[in-house]
UniProtKB/TrEMBL annotation:
This is Methanethiol oxidase. Gene3D superfamilies: YVTN repeat-like/Quinoprotein amine dehydrogenase. It is a peripheral membrane protein. The lineage of its organism: Eukaryota, Metazoa, Chordata, Craniata, Vertebrata. One of its GO terms (molecular function) is selenium binding. Keywords: Acetylation, Cytoplasm, Membrane, Nucleus, Oxidoreductase, Protein transport, Selenium, Transport. GO terms for biological process: protein transport. InterPro entries: Se-bd, WD40/YVTN_repeat-like_dom_sf. Residues 1-13 have a biased composition (Basic and acidic residues).
Amino acid sequence: MSGVRNEEGEGRLLKRSSQRAVRAEPAEPQSSSMAGCAGCGPGYSSPLDAMKGPREQIVYLPCIYCNTGILKPDYLATVDVDPKSPTYCQVIHRLPMPNLRDELHHSGWNACSSCFGDATKKRNRLILPSLISSRVYVVDVGTNPRVPQMHKMVEPVDLFWKCGLANPHTTHCLGSGQIMISCMGEPGGNGKGGFVLLDGETFEVIGNWEHPGEAAPFGYDFWYQPRHNVMISTEWGAPKALANGFNPDHVKAGLYGSSLHIWDWTSHKKLQTLDLGEDGAIPLEVRFLHDPDATEGYVGCALRGSVFRFYKTPRGDWAAEKVISVPSKKVEGWLLPEMPSLITDILISLDDRYIYFSNWLHGDIRQYDITDRRNPRLVGQVFLGGSIISDGPIRVLEDPESQPQPPPRYIQGRRVPGGPQMLQLSLDGRRLYVTTSLFSGWDKQFYPDMTKQGSVMMQVDVDSVEGGLSLNEDFLVDFGKEPDGPSLAHELRYPGGDCTSDIWL
């Protein structure tokens, strides 16, 4: 891969014993295989064991009021997804945050399957970083999973002064008992890809994970594999550039990223930077294969609709190659003459057979068979809204894939606003949950009607044998009907573990 450079530096080392890996989730019934495992910790012994776990009954979603015109705090919604329940497809609890304008975004756990062998650990706290205010909320989901309660609040000043970081994004729990959160910037709004460590018991800020002077230019997501002593982080852009919408000139000005950063998991040193080039601009969600022995994974790159495979080479360093490309469409009536698909979320099934990703602008979700890791094969596709719907103001002039403009999607009479965005797969790989909000500043720019009408949560039925996707017409959670007004529901997380938070050792 061209554009690879080595970066090594000196600095202090935060020593932590038995640092293993993962992001965690609240305590719920475990799989039947745990019956003979007295005193086991949270999660599952392996990804394949997790696939045998119980069906999800509730999900947690951060709901946002920023940029909607409603001056209310963001909140954590608990949604009933049990088809046998009388409150199926309903928000059964709302936990408002104690502040305004936080922009809740992604969430993570205090413990997960990385702590499976530790009986002292419980997946009972949900960590909620705020992308704009830089607060971090810790929510008790263990005492009563259906009625979460606030446990602690970490103020922005702790991130600013102790770490020199701001705009926290991804949370992963560590086998050491600590919690690590990636950050996107520094307090002045410039890009800075560093990592905050929290104590797993007190949730106090400990300090930085990375060495002084080794933060990446930009930050976003990260994933680590302890068996291979590696962590990989990605880049979005400078918070001051992206907060109020997307400006193509900011890409030319160098305010958005296009690199993967390779870190030594034990020493915390940054070893490599893989420049993915123009086709890899704005690399967002990064996913290793779930098999802890695997030395490869995938990252979705938003701006050019590309998926790159990253892998360890025979030399022991890391490289990347583009394996999926969703071509842009020539259009009229839009911001630019060409519309990218804008891949905004990806995930991998627990058996490492399929990869799923959302094209937020084009409006479709795709399923690829990745049995041949270097040659993914498209096996499923479904359109759920998007910017090129047939009755909208945008006309497709040229489509390299020769697909007709899709009709608008209605579910139970509700027109789907926005496009498919955040994804979460059931443990058994048969149900894919979808929401339509990306980030309130970008929602307001690209889908202004959604900021007024609220987002939705949908469910897609998955053929996990032959491949295939179809919308479940009987499932809809409409966040346009919330008590305080329409809100923007974002990421999905459910107790017991899922495909984007658990890491195995």
